[in-house]
Amino acid sequence: MIKKIFKKIEIINYWFICLLISIYFSFLIGEFFYDSIYSPDFSKYKIYMDYFQGNNEKTYLEQNLSYFFIQSFIFSLQNEKLFDYNFNALLDSSIFMTNNLLYIIGLIGIYKMLLNFNFKKNDILISLTLLNFFPPVLGMRMIFKPEIFVFALIPWIIYSIELFIDTKNEKYLYISYFLSIYLFTIKPTSTAMCGLFLLIRYRGIFLKYGIKQILILFVFLMIIFTPLLIEDFDANGIFYFFHETNDEYTERPDVTFLYNIDIFNIKEKPLKNYHADSLPGIILLDTFGDYFEVLWENDRSLFKFNKVNLGDNFFVNSYLRKYIGIALTLIFYCLTIFNLIKSKQFKDFYFLPFYGIITLLIVAYTGNFEKSTGDILKTTYYSFFLAITFCFLILKAINKLNKENKLFISFLFIFLNLFIFGFPKESNPEYFRYLEANNVAPFICNINQIFVPDRTTDCKNYELNICNFNKDDYTIERIRNENYSQSIKDKNTKLTTNDFKSEKTLQKNNLIIQVNDKEECINYIENGFNPIKKNFEISNFPIVNIGYIIIALLIIIYLFISKIRN
Fold first, then answer.
1. Does the predicted model carry a pTM greater than 0.85?
2. Which of 117, 170, 290, 322 is the most exposed, having the fewest neighbouring CB atoms within 10 Å of its CB?
3. Domain ranges of the chain
């Protein structure tokens, strides 16, 4: 008996350690290989950060302030380390770090939710381990968009409602209402998706309590949230539901968009914009792939460089990763539809991706679509739903497998997705210098440095190493340069030695100089020159949003530590 207990504990610890390692390594991949300031819509949403700095009076966007304030606040904590030449690098790292903090909150919520559904603990840990490498989720963690905030909240909403169903304790119902309405203020499309799911999944609660009682409670909560909406309106200049459509997004897709698929071009040209007239094509290419070229296919990320060629075949080297993504997408949706038909208890969770797709189709057919791209159907917009469905699929698939088969499936899945992301990589000194230049994350920078072969310095301290010209701070900017990235035609391009001289900009009072070598730089530093300082200080504090962030966090902590008494 005792041996069995210790064996069980050992297994639990083993899978838990695997989960922690997978969280860290998936974080490491994004930290080293992606630049969040070149993620989709960063230039659009950065106006929120400018607003908190006091640089803009209004954002003229419709979204809630909370996610963007969390990002801005955490970045402002690094203010004393910010200089003109390292500002973007630290901003990129801060965005990714903050997203991953929100991701972990959502990850814990999924664990509690699945545990409440009586799934095996070890199986849940395996599903979460694989979730870390699920392409839509990794993409959600890397980009500067509030879908990650939705991911952080939706599992806790589901968990609190399920606790109410199990215990009949109405405090969990009130908790779910608070978190739900807070989520509904984040983004209109996520409001529609999550509202549709919650209304259908838990319609029995609404019917049991009666429309009148529910409406009274809803009105009461709306009164509580009115200050939040007013604060958002004051900052944005427009109301939450008044989305201003760009000139490009004024079209409607044809009816054939719903079912049209070009098999020939799926094989010959699985590339951006070639399938803008095909919903099935976009889903096939963008679920496990990066059809819109904003993540690992982004020219300004390190993902696309130094890929190992598998022979001389053009299609293998150029498209094999895409073909594997298509195959995994087909498996994903076939299993989803199969379980949707077979399962009664979890049917709504298997239908989650379709809630997202249906919502986006409604948006598209109401005149918010661009026929030349079809990018309103990005999987990013419903990635939080894909994540939950993925966990249910994995739990179902491994339920009756032994430990060895579970390990095999886990390693195979992770390997295939790493291959899709652009691994393995060919090694060369320039490539490692690029990795070192990207290693700027606070707190874990020294740990990350372990995984940079041939490193020439200790963990990067920008203040102390301003004059270290051997460290290629400047080279990373070369692939972020628009002209350079647009000139790249070969998808398997290799990083090459930079062919221009680096300069450092120093300042003393009003005098600004350029230095070209280490010795000269050190001399100027010793004579009172410093790097040009660049500040990020918050002057506009959204007090109401801060209050709701704190309340939501306290509720999540309470749900996490509370013990349920049946």
1. yes
2. 170
3. 2-249+323-424+540-561, 429-489+502-531
